Amino acid sequence: MGSILNPFIDRKSLLKKLSMWRLSAIILFVFLAFKLFLAKDLSVFQTDYVAQIWIEGFISDDRDLKNSIESIYRDKRAKALIVNINSPGGTFVGGEKFYTLLRKFSKSKPTVAVLGDQATSAAYLIALGTDHIIAHNGTLTGSVGVILQSLEVTELAKKIGIKPIILKSSPLKGTPHPAEKLTSGGKEYLKHIIDSSQEIFLNIVKERRKNIKQEHLLDIEQGKIYTGHMAKNNNLIDEVGGYDNAINWLKGKNVMTDIVFDIDIYNNKSGINNLIKGLNFMNNFNYKLLSVF
User: Fold this and answer.
1) Which of 10, 131, 181, 231 lies 20 to 30 A from 97 at CA?
2) pLDDT tens digits, residue range 86-135?
3) Can you give the residue range of the structural domain that contains 91?
């Protein structure tokens, strides 16, 4: 009797062991997948590669994006960086920080920017941080300038019977404020801030794009936007093209481009996140984010 049951017992035992091995293999696979795609430490890549990132939507002081770029910079296997930019702009500080970060990156590894549908204002400022800028013919870029946005609702408040009460230590404290009229002194004060930031932006343009002719620079200072073709003629970019042009440029820098890893910064690709950022920007009257948007 025992000899007849043994084969069935052995088979059940074998199937049980096989299931355990399968489960272990699945767990190991999932662990490695998370390690590869979600780990902050990019050293999990076991070969030399070119990193590729996307900067999209409203630009601000994005910690996730900053950490990702710094991780790529520290990874010895990362030999270059392709920065895809598709953004209408954002805050001056956001653009300035990523410009500075990319300049630091470029001192040790080649960087190239590929502009998408648009890369204006703060987005163009970020592109200036790379070694080489490429735009499509139809890309909208440029818009070199600074803007400070607010609202005045004093007349509306008066019509609906609301009388704001504002107590402050000095006339310019909290200027501009939607619940009070902007005085000539307030306008002069704010214009000084905008002009100071604009000077910083223009100096970066002049430093990074040394071949811009004086007559073109006068147009650029007006905050005009340009198509990719126009931007090339005005020396705002280096080349008209796309991804393939970026690869060819890197090859010219003796960078092996056989492996290109897409580094997905999830926070920057979230539509709802960009919507929240935009709403916060429009509603944040207390802090008045200075924008190059």
Assistant:
1) 231
2) 999 999 999 999 999 999 999 999 999 999 999 999 999 999 999 999 99
3) 46-148+223-283
